Amino acid sequence: MEKFNSSKASNGVFKKDLRLREMEGIREQQERLAKLHFNFGADMNLHSNLSSPDLRMSEKKMKTLMEKLAELSESIENLQN
């Protein structure tokens, strides 16, 4: 019985440690996404008269931003399951 309880306790600690690492990964994703968003906004302010190449670059950056947001959303959803 003691072995069983000991195993149960260490399994719970392992799960908490894994959950903490997952949450830290999500926080890092949030920080990277915020930095991308900030830099994208700063670039947009610098180039208010967007030429065709600038528009393509903006579309590419927006696509990257949305992809990273989808990844973050999926990570959060997986954490809740």
- Radius of gyration over C-alpha positions, nearest whole angstrom: 21 Å
Q: What do the pLDDT scores average to?
A: 84
Percentage of residues in DSSP E strands: under 5%
How far apart, in Å, are the first and last alpha carbons? 30 Å
What structural class do the secondary elements suggest?
Answer: mainly alpha
Instruction: Give the % helix.
Output: over 70%
Based on Cα principal axes, name the global outline.
rod-shaped
Main beta-sheet strand count, sense and barrel state: none
Helix and strand pattern: HH
Number of helical elements: 2
The low-pLDDT segments are none
Secondary structure tally: strands: 0
Commentary on this structure:
This protein has helices at residues 2-46, 52-80. The protein has two helices and no strands. By secondary structure, the protein is an all-alpha fold. 0% of the residues are buried. The chain has a domain at 29-80. Helices cover 91% and strands 0% of the residues. It starts with a helix and ends with a helix.
Key descriptive features of the protein:
mainly alpha, CCDC28, 81 residues, 91% helix, rod-shaped
In brief, what are we looking at here?
The chain is built from 2 helices and no strands. By secondary structure, it is an all-alpha fold.
Give the SSE layout.
Elements: H1 2-46, H2 52-80
